[in-house]
Every structure is written in structure tokens, then in C-alpha cells.
């Protein structure tokens, strides 16, 4: 019997091709990967290696051309648009490099948005609790322009987590932050994995950020190119340097 319980996400032979003919691009080329529950995985690789495409396929934001994606026991292949939308809304959380908060809404209103979109009336205490989790209980009434970059990303995290998703995906979530603020966001992600058993999958170009993860998965040309487990930033940086083509 297949065990669907230990893996939050399971990809089997996932390919994603864009376009056709001479201009066709293979962004993912037969990727098989498992993301165990309660673990923190970093995804690294050169620009254009397929990292964002991998995350979007794993999160149900994009459909693979072929292969299988299983999220918490649910096979995404063949799901109707409506079911896929529900899964995205309720079972995965996503944060981006650009925080993508709605500027006219307060922090609390931004955090409440996923529940409102799902037709639920978010209780004040649930929104307050989500903001408190990211250390922003005292900023509920502030609009994004009144918050620092790190605070905006923490609001985006609270918004991604309010539905209690099985997996939290981050596509370069610290990419737009200065070093210190980025570290705060990473510490928060780490504590969610350690304290609450959250599963986190994060794309990053930063070896220090990746060293916060339990495991680093490397991608090259849309294919897995090795992993490191429990590695420090130096070992990760060395591996990244080897994967990148020499510029001269
Ligand atoms: N919508 C699209 N149409 C055509 N090609 C695409 C599309 N999206 C991505 N690609 C191509 O797929 C490949 C992988 O893109 P992807 O965005 O996943 O890379 P990435 O590893 O996230 O890169 P980066 O580090 O620069 O963000 C690239 O060659 C890209 O040009
Ligand atoms: Mg990308």
C-alpha cells in the first residue's frame, strides 16, 4: 500500500514544457521528489533551472505537462479547476519575493483575505492570533506602506498560514529583504517547522538562508542535481559554485 501520510508533497516524473516546436522550453524534466511532513527544504539552482516552476507545480498553481503531484494524499492530476482552486486556497500557502499585499487593506484585512475568499467570516481572534505568530500583534491596523519590508513579509506569512496549510511554499521569500530582516523571516520559518510541525519548501539563492533548512535540493536544467542534508552555508555555497557555469 502506498503511504501518503509521511509526505506532505510527492512528485513523480513531473515534466513541464512551455510552447511548441523550435521555441519549446522544458522547464522541468522528469522530476521525482518527496517533501516529508514537518521538514524544511530549500531548493537551489541557477537562474532558469526550474525552481519557480517546481514550486508552482507542487502547489497546484501550475499544471505539469506530465507526471504526478500528490499533496497530502490528494493526486492533483485530473482535478477540476474548481477543486484545484479549493486545494490551493485551503491546503497550501504561498509567499513570494514581492510580498503581494493589497496596499489599500490593513495588515489584519490582508491576513483575513484567504478566509474571506473562501466565503468564511474570519474571527478577530483568529486574525489576531495569526499576526501574533509572526510578532505583529501591534500592527494589525497598519497598511503595507506603514510597515518595513520584513514586517510586510511577515504579514504575507501570516496570510499564508491562516488557513493552516499542509505546506508553506516560499519563492525567494527573503530575496527582497536586507540581511538582518531576512534572518528574522528565516528564524520564523524555522520555528514554525520545529514548534508546529509545519512543512516548508523555499527557493533561495542565498546559501545562508538555505542552511536554515534541513535539506537542500539542487536543480539544474529542470532536473534534480543532488541534495545536501544538514549542511552549513559554506558547504552549500561550494556546491552552488560548482553548479553554476563559469562566467569567463
Ligand atoms: N510561462 C512561461 N513560458 C515560457 N517559458 C517559461 C515560462 N515560465 C518559465 N519559463 C522557462 O522555464 C525555465 C524555468 O523557469 P523558472 O522560472 O522555473 O526558473 P527559476 O529557476 O525559478 O529561475 P530564477 O532563479 O531566475 O527565478 C526558464 O527557461 C524559463 O524561461
Ligand atoms: Mg524563480
UniProtKB/TrEMBL annotation:
Pfam families: ABC_tran
Alphabetized GO MF terms: ATP binding; ATP hydrolysis activity; transmembrane transporter activity
Top-level taxonomic group: Bacteria
Record-annotated ABC transporter domain positions: 9-246
GO CC annotation, single: membrane protein complex
Keywords of the record: ATP-binding, Nucleotide-binding, Transport
UniProt keyword Transport, yes or no: yes
Protein name listed in UniProt: ABC transporter ATP-binding protein
Amino acid at each position: 500500500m502506498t503511504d501518503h501520510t509521511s509526505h506532505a508533497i510527492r512528485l513523480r516524473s513531473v515534466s513541464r514544457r512551455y510552447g511548441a516546436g523550435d521555441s519549446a522550453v522544458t522547464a522541468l524534466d522528469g522530476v521525482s521528489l518527496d517533501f516529508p511532513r514537518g521538514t524544511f527544504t530549500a531548493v537551489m539552482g541557477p537562474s532558469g533551472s526550474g525552481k519557480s516552476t517546481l514550486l508552482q507545480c507542487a502547489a497546484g498553481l501550475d499544471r505539469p505537462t506530465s507526471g504526478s503531484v500528490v499533496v497530502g494524499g490528494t493526486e492533483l492530476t485530473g482535478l477540476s479547476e474548481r477543486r484545484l482552486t479549493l486545494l490551493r486556497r485551503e491546503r497550501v500557502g504561498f509567499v513570494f519575493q514581492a510580498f503581494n499585499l493589497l496596499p489599500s487593506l490593513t495588515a489584519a484585512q490582508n491576513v483575513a483575505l484567504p478566509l474571506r475568499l473562501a466565503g468564511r467570516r474570519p474571527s478577530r481572534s483568529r486574525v489576531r492570533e495569526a499576526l501574533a505568530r509572526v510578532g505583529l500583534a501591534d500592527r494589525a491596523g497598519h497598511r503595507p506602506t506603514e510597515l518595513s519590508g520584513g514586517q510586510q513579509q511577515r504579514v504575507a506569512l501570516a496570510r499564508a498560514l491562516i488557513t493552516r496549510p499542509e505546506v508553506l511554499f516560499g519563492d525567494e521569500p527573503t530575496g527582497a529583504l536586507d540581511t538582518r530582516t531576512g534572518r528574522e523571516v528565516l528564524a520564523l520559518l524555522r520555528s514554525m517547522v520545529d514548534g508546529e510541525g509545519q512543512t516548508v519548501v523555499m527557493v533561495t539563492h542565498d546559501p545562508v538562508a538555505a542552511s536554515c533548512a534541513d535539506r537542500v535540493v539542487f536543480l539544474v536544467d529542470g532536473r534534480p542535481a543532488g541534495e545536501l542534508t544538514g549542511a552549513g552555508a559554506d558547504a552549500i555555497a561550494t556546491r552552488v559554485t560548482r553548479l553554476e557555469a563559469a562566467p569567463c
